[in-house]
Sequence to fold (320 residues):
Amino acid sequence: MNIETLTSGPTTIAMISASDERTPATGAARRELAEEVAGQANDLVLKHGAVAFRGFGVESAADFHDLVCVFGDPHSEYLHGNSPRQAVHQGVWTSTEYPAEYDISLHNELSQSYRWPDRLFFCCLVPPQTGGETPVGDGRAMLAKMDPAVLRRFQAHGVAYLQNMHGGYGLGRSWQETYESDDPAKVTEYLRAADVSFTWTEDEDLRIRQVRPATRTHPVTGEEVWFNQADQFHVSSLPKQDAESLFALVESEEELPLSATFGDGSPIPLDDLEHVRSLARSTECAFGWQRGDVLMIDNMLVMHGRHAFTGPRQVLVAMI
Fold:
């Protein structure tokens, strides 16, 4: 077994590689190898926030699921997310169906929600022809480097996330896709339990608003981390042409599929958002995929994203 590190700026990814003679040929051998390194991997992910596994013989979604189970019980649902994805196995989804030509900015999964996964696992079954790396960025470093005035504004007000979900036809995602149900009563029950303000329209569309903190404290390490998606939800994250096309279809920013303000309803200054985006980019450490690689990240300690790519990239995700 070999352990090395990939470091860029303040972010480090630890990589555990199986030697050629230890590459598992069976499911039992894979689980045995994963169990052998699990303790060390758990220590490394709390230190660095990200750990990659290479040469563990993962060749399918089922293989990936089995490896994830060594670390915990994979989530069986993906509720309240805003990224399009498809289920491919119990507890395993495509990482995103977002168009290949666009980058996905760094973010913490479901940080806009009242509940989020502790860890994310990504697995590459088909590497892209070019690009397609998964960048991660250390949220602790992000917080330490942030302009104090910008940080004070975010901490004082928090972030309000607004989502408009259609009931079958319209802009963005439907509420049926988002909540994996076509029963408004079941979705209403979930939203009430999740501390979400919501309105059903006459057209059976769903509008929600939820206010969350901009930073949180990691439950194990006790470290404060940047933990929100204000810059990604805000319309300024879109290419100019796409934003203009959206505004041609709605009367106000509040009617967009996604938008964000400070928690008190006041607009977030564009300069603040650009500062956040610039800092996030400065923390990036990009992981380039090989077939069978698995990447485990602590969803609070580090953010993750995706670089644009060409070719038939297939990367899966599971959560615990």
Q: What stands out?
A: The chain is about 30% helix and 30% strand. The radius of gyration is 20 Å.
